[in-house]
């Protein structure tokens, strides 16, 4: 009798036991899914927080650059306006003392100082200029050849061999004046890195993302602490200069939707790569009509 009752009790409890095990298994599975979802959400929040922090830093940097640009533009215009009468008076003075060799030499030194000041004013104006690129179809190779040809006397005087490896049939869309300014700054920066002479390499190549123009030298290379600050306005490792040359290059690259990269070469020296994305040449409104 007792055995019969136990068997019946087991048969009655078995379904409930199975249902409880199913519920517990489902509960554990749901708990695991919630835990994974929670961890994924935490990771996404951290990523978005880091991204927001980066965006805020970039916004703050751009605001500082805008303030610096306005200040630089004001100072540059005031200095340039003040240079006009000074250069005129210097020219009149040179005529009056044309027979005085010592006086002419002194005037020449003053004139050289004015020219250096004009270079600084030019850098300030380029740094503060904000305009959209006027895109044209052009050859970066032809531009590089023209620049190196115009700088050939300086290369010869400084013992620098300029090597341009850029096919003339390689074309891109860019603002020719802005691109010329950027490449000139990069080339002059490389020249400054080789006061005792060396080799300057300018190469242009196409990539799946766009066009890359690289300016490399075999100078001493870049220090790690300088690499992080190269494109900051007014930062320079030179005894002379405004520290705006590379900042102008970066602004020009960003205006074209590209970027400029800096790195040390494996065999010594430094390389700056100006990256331009592939952009279609859209016709102007007058051309569409």
Automatic annotation (TrEMBL):
Lineage runs: Bacteria, Pseudomonadati, Planctomycetota, Planctomycetia, Pirellulales
The residue stretches assigned to a coiled coil in this entry are 24-65
Q: What class of enzyme is it?
A: transferase
What PANTHER family does the annotation carry? PEROXIDE STRESS-ACTIVATED HISTIDINE KINASE MAK3, SENSOR HISTIDINE KINASE
Please give the name of this protein.
histidine kinase
Q: Histidine kinase domain spans which residues?
A: 74-280
UniProt-listed Enzyme Commission number(s): 2.7.13.3
- Keyword ATP-binding assigned: yes
Recorded GO molecular functions are: ATP binding; phosphorelay sensor kinase activity
What catalytic activity is recorded?
ATP + protein L-histidine = ADP + protein N-phospho-L-histidine
User: Does the keyword field hold Mitochondrion?
Assistant: no
Annotated InterPro entries: HATPase_C_sf, HATPase_dom, His_kinase_dom, HisK_dim/P_dom, HisK_dim/P_sf, Sig_transdc_His_kin-like_C
Q: Which UniProt keywords apply?
A: ATP-binding, Coiled coil, Kinase, Nucleotide-binding, Phosphoprotein, Transferase, Two-component regulatory system
Q: Which Gene3D superfamilies match?
A: 1.10.287.130, Histidine kinase-like ATPase, C-terminal domain
